Amino acid sequence: RDAALAIDAAEYDLAVLDRVLRGGGDVTGQARYLVDASPTLARALRTRFQRWQRGRWTPADGLVLPPPSSLAALEPHQLGARAYSPTALELFAACPYKFYLSAIHRLAPLDFPEAIEELGPLEKGALTHTVQFRLLSQLRDEGVDVRTASLESVVYPKLAALLQAVATEYRDDFQPAIERIWEDGVATTLADLREWLLRVQQDPSWEPWRFELAFGLSARDERDPASSPDPVVLDAGVRLRGSIDLVERRSDGHLRATDYKTGKQRAQPSNVVGGGRHLQPALYALVLEKLLPDHPTEAGRLYYCTQVGGFASVATPLDSLTRGSVAQVIGALRLSLERGFFPALPGKAKAGSGDECQYCDFRPVCGPDEPRRAKLKLSHAQARKDVAALEAVRGLP
C-alpha cells in the first residue's frame, strides 16, 4: 500500500492509483506524473475518459465532431455521389459506426485461407444461390415451366446433376477437411432445393421470370440478360447497386422481387423495413419499379428457402407505408453523412438475443462494453437529441 516500498514501476503506479481511488485527504494531481511520463499513455487515458463521459458525444465515440478535412473526405460518399448496396445500408440502423467502418472505410476481417470442416451458412448460401440461378436459367432456355413440369422425371434429375457440378467447383475452392461432412452438407442442400421446387409448384400464381437481375455491378456471365450496368436512383435520393435473386411475374403482369435467404428467419412477418435492418424487400421492390417500369411492382419478399428458415416467406407490399419508411431511413442516413456523425451506438439485434455487438466483426476496434458506454451518453437530453433520427428509424415496423 505504500508506494515508497514498491519494487518496480508497475507496483508503484498501482499503489499510487489505489491511494487516489480510495480517497482520504487531498489527492488532486498525485497521478499527474503518468500523463507526463508517456504521451501514448496520456492519449489512452484521455480517450478512455471521453468514451466513458456521461451525456456527451466526443471524437472518442466514433466519427463525432469531425474537422473540416473529415467532412471533405466524406463528400465522395454522400448518397448522391456513389452507389450503396442494400446490405450496406442495413448496417446503419444496426450501428452507425459499423456502417462507417464497413461502407465508408471498407474495412473487413483479415481472411486466412484454410480448409473448412463443414458446409457452413456462407458456403451453403453460395452453393444454393448458384444452383437456383443455373437451374431456373436452364429450364427457361429449354422452354420448361417449372410450375407445371414433372418434378420426378424432369426437374429433380436436372437439379441433382447441377448440384453435383456446382459442388465439385466449390470443393476446389473450399478444400473441405472432412469429405464425409462435406457430402452430408451437399445432401442437406439437395433436400432443401427439392422442397423449394415443390413449394414453387404449390403456388403457381407466380412465375419465376428473371434470375439474378443485377444493377450497378460489373459485367459477369451469370446474370440475367435484362441486368443494367448502371446503379438505380430511387426517389428517396439514394443510388443503389446489387442483384435481385428472383423476379416473379403474375398473370396480370404484376411483379415481385424475391431475395433468397438460407439462414434462420430474422425478419418479422409484418416487416416493412424492420427498424432499418431488413431493408432488402422494400429496396428491391423500389429498384424493380425503376428497372421495369412497364410492369407494376406489387411487393418485395424475403424467402427463407431452407429447413433452417422453415421455408418462411416475408412479403413487404410496395405501398405508401413502405415508401415513407424507406424515405425516413434514407433521410436519417443522409443527415449523418452530411454532419459526419457516426457514433458507436449498437442497437438490439432482436428481442432476447442481446445487442448488435455480440457477433460484430468490428468489436476489436471498439473494445468491450460499448452498449454500457452508449447508455451513459444517452443519459443527457442533448445526446439523445443527436441520435433522435436514428432511434426513430429503429422504431419503424
Share of residues in strands: 5-15%
Secondary-structure element series: HHHEHEHHHHHEEEEEHEEHEHHHH
Spatial separation of the terminal alpha carbons: 57 Å
Low-confidence stretches: none
Q: Care to describe what's here?
A:
This protein has helices spanning 9-22, 32-37, 39-51, 68-74, 86-94, 96-104, 121-141, 151-174, 179-202, 280-291, 320-339, 363-366, 370-377, 381-386, 388-394; strands at residues 62-63, 83-84, 206-215, 232-233, 239-240, 242-250, 255-261, 297-304, 313-317, 342-343. The protein is α+β, with helices and mostly antiparallel strands. β6 and β7 form a beta hairpin. The chain is built from 15 helices and ten strands. The protein is elongated.
Give the key terms.
397 residues, alpha+beta, 5-stranded mixed β-sheet, 15 helices, 46% helix, elongated
Short description:
The chain has helices at residues 9-22, 32-37, 39-51, 68-74, 86-94, 96-104, 121-141, 151-174, 179-202, 280-291, 320-339, 363-366, 370-377, 381-386, 388-394; strands spanning 62-63, 83-84, 206-215, 232-233, 239-240, 242-250, 255-261, 297-304, 313-317, 342-343. The chain is an alpha+beta fold and 397 residues long.
Task: Set out the fold topology.
Blueprint: H1 9-22, H2 32-37, H3 39-51, E1 62-63, H4 68-74, E2 83-84, H5 86-94, H6 96-104, H7 121-141, H8 151-174, H9 179-202, E3 206-215, E4 232-233, E5 239-240, E6 242-250, E7 255-261, H10 280-291, E8 297-304, E9 313-317, H11 320-339, E10 342-343, H12 363-366, H13 370-377, H14 381-386, H15 388-394
Parallel strand pairs: 2-5, 7-8
Antiparallel strand pairs: 1-10, 3-6, 4-5, 6-7, 8-9
Helix pairs in contact: 5-6, 7-8, 7-9, 8-9
